[in-house]
Amino acid sequence: MSQLLDIIIQAFYTGAEWALIATGFGFIARTTNIFHLALGGIYAIGAYGCYYFTVQLGMPLFIGAIIGVLLAGVGGALIDLAVYQPVTGLYGKRQVDRLSPFIASLGVLIVLQNCIQLWFGSIPLFIESPDWGVATIGTSRILVWNLVKILISFCSVAAFALWLVKTRTGASALALGQSPEGASVVGISERAVRLQIFFATGLFAGLAGVLAIMTHPTLPHDGLAIVIYGALIAMMLPKANVLVWWLIAVAAAFVYAATITTIGGGWHDVVLQTVLMSAVVILRIIMPAMQRRRIIREASLLEATKNNR
Amino acid sequence: MTYWLTVATFSLIYGSLAISYNICVGYVGLLSIAHAAFFSIGAYAYGIIGFQTGDGGLFPVAALAGILVAVLIATVLGWVFTMLDEHYVIIGTFALQIIFTSLLLNLDVVTGGIQGIAGIPWPEIGPWEIDTVNERLVFAVLLIALTLGYAVWILKSPIGLRTRAARENPVAASSTGISVRRLQVIMFASGAGFAALAGSVYAGVIGFIDPTTFTLHVSITMLSMVVIGGLGNPYGALVGGVVIATLPALVQEFDIGASSAAAIQQILFGLIMILMIILRPSGLFPENRLVRIPRGK
What we know:
The complex is a heterodimer. Chain A has helices spanning about 1-30, 40-55, 60-85, 100-120, 145-165, 170-180, 180-185, 190-215, 220-235, 240-260, 270-309, and strands at about 135, 140-145. By secondary structure, chain A is mainly α. In chain A, strand 1 and strand 2 (about 140-145) form a beta hairpin. The termini of chain A are far apart. Chain B contains twelve helices and four strands; from the N terminus they run H-H-H-H-H-E-E-E-H-H-H-H-E-H-H-H.
């Protein structure tokens, strides 16, 4: 029982990081149809930006963290401006295929991760998290910092969900995702809204990076694996509310933590990726096929009833 | 001289790998990021059989076994992936590649784990024992000739034209009676088979394999080879593969340390990929120069 509680707590604070990435990734995929893997590089900007300002320049942790997150947001917007907008034909009348933005995002990811590695080296870096003591939940003990981390992640995603439904920019972003042409007709500037989307999702990735480097040693190349987790989480239910992604991220992290605790070794990647992929296949292939079959059956039943009458 | 002959050998192997990847991505349009997994199947097939028996003469049998396993797995995966939207294929193959690498690391009884397999015997094909640098280069040339020959032949054959039609417009292709999905699976599996062959040759030529040779980054490097050369053009993929595979050797010529050299090399890959996609999205050698589809009346 105590072990289960430990796993659940670990799932929450690991899932808190993944959820931020899943929110960023899923929202960009939903609104711009871009597979933004470069989010892994932005995650590293957040983490290493915070490290640079707090450890190397000696600034207070809180200030360093904010600068790291802001740098990541600006990085996200710049990537859209310099790479995605030209590639997706927002300048001129370029014929756009769906693969080009993805390939460009891979290129950006490679450049960002390796620039950071060149600057900071390939040794994992770590920032001492604030010492706020230990809390006891049932029989388990958890650092108060980890509870704060869970809270920061949940509140950020909840605020984003509110921003989407309560603000004009949020509504414009959703409109852009549903129909770029329609959004353009009603006077929404695609370029301006996209910049805001990329800035906001950059903030999320940066925040995930900052939380990560304050929890465990982080490498510049760690971002890719987390983006893949985030992508699988968000793409399971691509149209779902961002808070649903947060819960899925915690569930995925539960599988991850349970595998590490029960099986051990390096099997967590095999188990988690298999579980996430199976869930995607079930939700995106098997369930739609079953739904189609049910509709056809119901339609033929209706037809048969009409004929009998 | 020996160093550059070895570089040329590996560049040709990677060139042939890029051509096989181009069959999956360029011809079919199925953006798989798990090609290094098929490469590893071939490499480990010869690595395990060669190491256990110590007999290089079993190379043809091991290579064939690797090809069969890769084709079988690719057929099953291709069947599933062709049911999914493009984005799901990308993310699914990403996950698959991570699973494969983790399996190579964790099944250490079979694969040697992180230590890998050392002391793989030089391959022998009948009376020909491939044990000198020059012979290994000739072996790599034969591999690339075979892969390129197949890629050009299949591209110009009716099946290649049908696949291309299916890639450009699946609905129109289906309306003319083309079985789009079957074609895609066949091409995907054949690309995987050639990747496995390249893997067996790689293991035979280098004599040592470990999971780091078959990671996600290798799959991404393959994608950059094809993007630079030209999606859909086998000659372009060959050029892209050879250029990208030679780049590390050129970067190492500057005395900047192994870690920095690797990072600079990756930064160059990334920048080239971004610039190519922005300035020349169809690559150095666009597809249309090779195959001219007759205009309809």
